Amino acid sequence: MPGRDVHMDTPEVPVSVRRVGVTGIRVPIQFIFFEEQPAIVVPTFDVYVDLPAYQKGIHPSRSYEATVEIVSQHAEKLHHLEDLCAEIAQEQLQRHDYATEAEVHAFADVVYARTTPKTAIRTYESCTMKARAIATRRKNGKIQFRRWIGVTVAGITACPCAQELLRDKAETTLTAEHQLKPDQAQKIADNLPIGSHMQRSFGSVMVEIPEGFDIDAIQLVGIVEQAMSANSYELLKRPDEASVVETALQNPKFVEDAIRQMVKNVVDTYPNLPDSMELQFIQRNEECIHRHDLVAEETITMGGARRQINDNHAL
After folding, report:
1. Same domain? 273 vs 301
2. 178 and 87 assigned to the same domain
3. What DSSP character marks residue 180?
4. pLDDT one-digit tens code per residue, 271-290
5. 72 and 187 both lie in a single domain
6. Is residue 121 situated within a structural domain?
7. Which of 208, 228, 229, 310 is deepest in the core (most CB within 10 A)?
8. Phi-psi region of 288 (alpha: psi -120 to 50; beta: other; left: phi over 0)
9. CATH number of the domain encompassing residue 24
10. How many independent structural domains does the chain possess?
11. CB 214 within 8 A of CB 80
12. Owning domain of residue 177
């Protein structure tokens, strides 16, 4: 005879808990919709449900079983990662009948092909694809969904501040030591690559997706890459290396600049995305001349982003 289910006991402290779950669930290889073709990945899932004040604990095995069963049903089928998260969240609510909200996060490394900027050699790059879904059980029993898709991409930023200091030094040297006129020195400095310290950068964007609307994650990769000083590559021949460094130096960015550019890129790329959709942006620059890193974040609705871009356009 089975013993009592301790999870169903009344807790000593009757306080509800917003998220309780299981993290780090890895599943067999799946096919994810990326760059308009299947991409083979091994996603990892974090799943949560809310816990009412009257119940001692959730049933963790149900969370794991629901995740594996849903993913197994999609084996070797092409699907969107955010839709898979939504189905897992729905199944969580069915298995945990005491819960009113389930939240699922997924992430996976995705490899895609690129060509180098000068020699056009084929190279394979990677990014982290991320998805999130929330399923909420309403009082009438219906389940409402919210879905997000996102990426984290590595790139390069060049520091504008250090570059400006070196530009001033170059102009001073040209005028003081080489007897050039100030306008001549400035012209030379404007036409030569002026160095700066480089930062290995990681940009992230998450976009909430309304029902009936699809976003290809490769578009988000471009949105992040275009917000940094230059792309980074696994393979670079000498002409490619010179091109990447020169591109970065011609386009210096603060960590804040990258966030702002990502916001604008999303607004420009998705003109039909509803105003209520949530956008999340993170930029982290790994410093090379400091022992600390720099981080910038922004969470805003699509409507709020549009208003800021339009209202501040003349500034």
Report:
1. yes
2. no
3. -
4. 999 999 999 999 999 998 99
5. no
6. yes
7. 228
8. alpha
9. 3.10.270.10
10. 2
11. yes
12. 162-191
